[in-house]
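[job 0412] stage=complex_fold ligand=adenosine monophosphate status=START
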Amino acid sequence: MPLYRAPRGTQDILPEDRPYWRHVTERAHAVAALYGYEFIDTPIFEETSLFVRGVGEGTDIVDKEMYSFQDKGGDDLTLRPEFTAGVMRAYLEHGMRTRPQPVKLYSFGPIFRREKPQAGRYRQFWQFNVEAIGEMDPALDVEVMSVAWQLYEDLGFGGLSFQINSTGDPRCRPRYIEALVAYYRQHLDVLGDDDRRRLERNPLRLLDSKVPAAQPVIAAAPKITDYLCDDCAQHFARVRRYLDELDRPYAVNHRLVRGLDYYTKTVFEVYAEGIGAQNAVCGGGRYDGLIEALGGPPTPGIGFATGIERIILTMKERGIAVPGQPRPTAFVAPLGEDGKTVALKLVTDLRAAGLPALLAFGDRSLKAQLRAADRAGATYAIILGEDELAQGQAALRHMAQGTQQNVLLQDVVTFLKNDSREQ
Ligand code: AMP
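[job 0412] stage=complex_fold status=DONE, emitting structure tokens
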């Protein structure tokens, strides 16, 4: 048993997984650029109170899952359990209201939540997070939804669809919550302890309940779309019309709600064919009250986040291939001490010319070195034996073809440069 292991719920991202990470990251950056979103990097920790306000008391994240600590100076800090609050803090702090609106930002990085670890659920995981701030237009909702859609499509996920809903706003939602609570009071007998607590603290979350006995009650519960004010109803109608026009399949899911006041209007999730019906690949929505809750002026916004580990797990499950790791051009294999000195110089020249090159260490036989060159996936092994060196040459062995030719030492870099250009 090793003395130490990665902390529970965390994992090392090993070199063999790098091609997936690189591919997903590159696609995410490319899609963001295509839609005109700019990269923003915020600190990994923020003041604890930012998340308490920005994520919201009564949420699992704030109540149970934050990694909060006091630093040695006595400041109360928390490792970010999501991106949005920090990005909104940055929007306010840097006066981004004076920039052309909407301000369209995306981020990429680790997130920390003390959840119960299981397959696809970690305590440190990465998110690709997209926010569009300062604009109410429902066309922006559809744009943000399309960023998520396009990422999954580009990554090779098939059968995509949206589930959408409107959560209303502080004008119309209270009337809906009243109706929901009144309805649930007639069904107390089927509610478990958790649901009873939700009824008191955060009734919208009753609609999330996974308890089998509660499902028929949820199905017959009042629907928020019957309670929307004109403004919210029109907004929702326009989102659906735009989705129709873009031919993006969607279903209205009345259970999709967010339990906090600053989440408003559109909520959405993306589903992909073959991924368990319970698991959205990503979720997002409007938060027109959030910036105000953080002490700023009333400013609308909409965004989504998606987890990178879950994307990669799903790609592997489905056998979606990604481009492999770039391979070294050359593996320099010297024989004897004289060869080692020449090899060190040659490998330095190759790298200076921008050609990925590896040097064989230790004092191994030619056979062992060729095996190592093969394992490294090098295009050429460059053999520096006594005979070659005596003639100021190197033997270049093309690993895949098994062919070999001698090249003057001073010509090796040019030869390989031309060769890699032809590939
Ligand atoms: P949320 O911020 O909770 O809406 O989550 C957004 C996305 O982050 C989810 O759709 C998942 O892909 C991912 N995610 C959330 N929690 C975890 C976790 N504990 N481990 C891995 N991925 C997660």
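The two ends are 46 Å apart (CA to CA).
[job 0412] exit 0
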